[in-house]
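[Automated response] Your request has been received and processed.

Submitted sequence:
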Amino acid sequence: MSRRYELKPAARSKVALNYAGLLNEEQQAVVEAGDGPILVIAGAGSGKTRTLTWRVARLLHDGASPESILLLTFTNKAAREMLRRVEEVARADTRQLWGGTFHHVAHRVLREHAPALGYAKGYSILDREDAKDVMSAAIADCGLAVGARRFPKADVLVDLVSMAVNTQTPLADVVADRRAQFLPLTDDILRVARRYAERKHAINAMDFDDLLMNWKVLLVDHEPVRRLLAERFRHVLVDEYQDTNKLQGDVVDLVAGAHRNLCVVGDDAQCIYGFRGAHFQNILGFEGRYPDARRFDLTVNYRSTPQILELANVSISYNVKQFEKALSSVRPEGALPALVPCRDVQQQAEFVAQRILELRDEGVPLPEMCVLYRAHHHAMEIQFELARRGIPFVVRSGVRFFEAAHIKDVLAHLRFAQNPGDELALKRALRLAPGIGSATADAVWNALAARRRGGAGGVDELLAPDVAGHVPPKGRAGYRRLVDLLRKLSRAPTSDLPGEAIELVLAEGYQERLEAEFVNADSRLEDLRQLAEYARGYEGTEAFLSEIALLSELSAETVSEGGEPDEKLVLSSVHQAKGLEWRAVFLVWLADGRFPSAQALRDRDGEEEERRLFYVACTRARDELYLCFPIMAAPRDRERVVLKASRFVEELPGEPPLYERWQLDEPGAAPALPAANDAAALLGAPAPEGARVIPLLFGRAAEPEPDAGPSSPFPRLRGEGRGPDGPADSEVGDGGQGGDDVPF
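Generated structure:
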């Protein structure tokens, strides 16, 4: 005997929403607005999250069922936090409310409807590594894994396909626009992309872009599904609408097309992700797509002082494509932003470090201060100076500059050319050559090390038959090219010109490698060119490499000594800083051609996005804003380049004053580190014969056999074997079995 028992929805308590004193008039107008399309232009620091939270609470309070509300955000964390606040203020159960990222919601939809697209239930989702593996298989299927022409690696193709899907642009056009060097390979790239799609479907899997694309396909091609979703989602709300791409914008319009109860919240002045595919026209053209839309502006800023806001307001007003508005501050009056012209990048770094220490002494904790920059390489000198002064810092925009893979790759070439006993540097350089893996690199090094123990072992010895013979046929061309490069780097004048040496590594194949293998090749190339400029300030390559090694170790000691420090200064690109705030912000490298970047100035839209980026940077500051730029760039071809302040500063009116110009004085310049000017002071004199290399703490090594050469597996100290007036014998190309006598 059994009994059926019906569960009824819990009666929702009619708790009155009381937001008196919690919302300003602008926010309250958004919360209380009725049905229909709504565009909310929420200025920086205007409390948009609070406004959106209360609007969801008001919908629930007025009788909307939780499952009828779709809340789209850019992080699941943001959605969870918003729904938690909704539960607190509305006393409502939000577990049935659809909230999360576009991809999260798309997955929930496709779990129900993927069979309509030919997928079996329980399809897999490919992460980035999985997608790269499938793409690699597709390349191999098309017979393009090897060949005379360098075909783009799987990572690059995944990125190109993703950009095409998210911007709804033909893949051939994306290749032409973003990777013009691959234009001759367009037909092959299209063939691989088609095979990539076939392989994913064959294994019942979707990548992240497929989730969105298939959601759109369901809405466009499957009318029953579209009607079902339109009936389910009676209220659609979208946060950070200015950052949506074309595909996301299309999905939003399709989901909300029937009932038109759509509320989008964003700030056109903070649309800064065009390089990722963000479609500015989504927010700018909203009123054109929804002629009956009502627009609400949130202009009361709770973050910054009036002086900081006034500078930001005036700057963004020079953009043509925008919703005109002016933010007003509720904060008390503060100091004017400071414009700080610096003699060069080194003085800029010194100013930032000194002022940070002063602010810390005045009671501003390090985590409440931030150094912002347009590109990662702009932080290079800053990181050096912070390490010198023992100021702990964290880099939000990625790894520390000299820990980046492409920086270490190039420096490995210079290190080995200077010190042929540097095992790690040689192995790293070898593994970069096509057709050479770790096993071959180990074998080459062991053979070279044996020659070094016999008294030889310079760069030229890499061509000796017993060394080069370990390279397999598929790697011989790349090996010969690498050895030729290392020989050039080890000979004058390049051996003493670190800037030129870096440029030579790029020209001799590393730039080509970057462009074929990395999705952010342009950024990495700019890092390396900036590194070359910086290196030209040193008298020699040894001094340059030694300072990098010394400061890297100093930085590591500063951070790790005694455990993690309680507080760290924040370094970040402006793009990574969006949505964050600090009491004091230092914006560096604010020079024309650097910020805005020269590449962005090719068209009006690019300049306007750069101005929006400047606006975002300024509005991260609560109390103090420092705008810094170097007047002189690092020397190039032994000539210094004069820079001028960014056009975003130059265009600001002089009256009323929007900033205070600071003049830097150096009454007593501190002595430079020895490594910057005197290699001998850092490296010391050459070790005398018989000098101890291995500490006694490590035990005594067996005595070497007569005439067997040094027994230690450690490389000899740099300078060992050199005469007073010339190079060591092993560095002379016509000695021993070196030269061009190679087995291939």
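Summary generated for your ticket: Residues 75 and 101 are 6 Å apart (CA to CA). Residues 498-517 form the longest helix (20 residues).
If you did not submit this request, please reply to this message.
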